[in-house]
Each structure stands twice: as C-alpha cells, then as structure tokens.
Amino acid sequence: MKELDLLKKDWQKSDNTFVQVSENDIYIMIHKRSSSIVKWILIISILEVLLWTLLSLFSNSDDYLREIKHVELIPYFDALTYVNYAVILIFIYQFYKNYILISTTTSTKKLMQDILKTRCTVQYYVWYNLGMIVIYTIIAFTVAFIYNPQMEVLKEKIASNSNVMIITVGVLFLTSLLFFGLFWLFYRVVYGILLRKLFINYKELKKIDL
C-alpha cells in the first residue's frame, strides 16, 4: 500500500511539476537514438568481416584445393574472395557515410531521408551476403563432387542407380537450406532488430513533420 500512497501524493502535486516536451526535444532524442543505431550497424558489420576473416584462417580453400590436387582453381577462388571483400568494404563505407550524415543532419526531413537510405543499404547488404552464401555453397558442392577423388564411389552408385542421385540431391538441398536458414536467422535477429528500431524513429519523425 505504500506504493499506492506515493502515487496518490504524486497525483495531488501541482500541474507545474509535469514538464511538457517540445517537438524539438523529441527530435533531439530521436536524432540521438538514430545515430546510435547506425553506429551499431557499422560496428557489427566490421566485427562480422573480422570474424569471417579469422574463420577463413582455419578453413583455407587453397589448402583443400592443394589436397585434391587442383591448384589451377586457386586463382578463381582468390579472385572471388577479393571481389567479395571489395563489395563488403563498399557497404561498410556506405554505413560509415550514413552514420556521419545522420549524426550531422539538422533537418527533420533530411533525417527521415537518411534513415530510409540506411535501411535500404542494410537490406541490400543482408541480401548480398545471403546471395554470396548460396553461391559459395553451390561452388563448394560442385568442386567437391567433380574434383574430389573420394566422390568416385558416389559417382559410380549414381551411374548404376538413379535413386542415389535423387537422394544425393535431396540431402544437398536440405543441407544448403539449413545452412542458408541459419544465416538468414542471424541477419534477421541482429540487423532486423536495429532496422525495426530505426523504422520506429522514422514513424515518430513523420508525426513531427506533419
């Protein structure tokens, strides 16, 4: 009951104790929140690149290609890796630019535009990464099936029994789907939460701008 008594006392206080928040105060608060969200998007994307770079040191495709004696494929894999890193660095640079724009803007309309631009960039980044995961998975399975000597037994079984081919394709499809689903869930949770918060800020700004 003590809590109820305290609430009654607060309610009985003068109306002057309630501070009205102006539209400018709301804008400053949303501006600060939006800047913080975009900063976290930038930080997470950099950490993600560092994580994948670290993991690549423990699972080097060049070593695998040397093991199956097809070193002629190494330049192609290296070229794909360089292109992938170049594109990701461009995205990170865009995240940095968006962070600077949102941090320095002084207009409600401009902040709304920058928020939408940031959301769009992040969505493109997520879909690009998911697309590259699909491409890498297809290439990995194809190279393993065609060039890995250990696949010769499987090839003979497929040649003699068409059902083996169906089972193999089914297993590969389900494995790829599971792999893709895990990454989609990761991006959905990590970037999805930040994008939802950013869109809430956009809707609040829209009310102010009316």
TrEMBL record:
Organism: Flavobacterium segetis
Source species taxonomy: Bacteria, Pseudomonadati, Bacteroidota, Flavobacteriia, Flavobacteriales
UniProt-recorded name of the protein: Uncharacterized protein
Domain of life the protein comes from: Bacteria
Keywords (A to Z) from UniProt: Membrane, Transmembrane, Transmembrane helix
Positions of transmembrane segments: 37-59, 79-96, 125-146, 166-187
Record's keyword annotation contains Transmembrane: yes
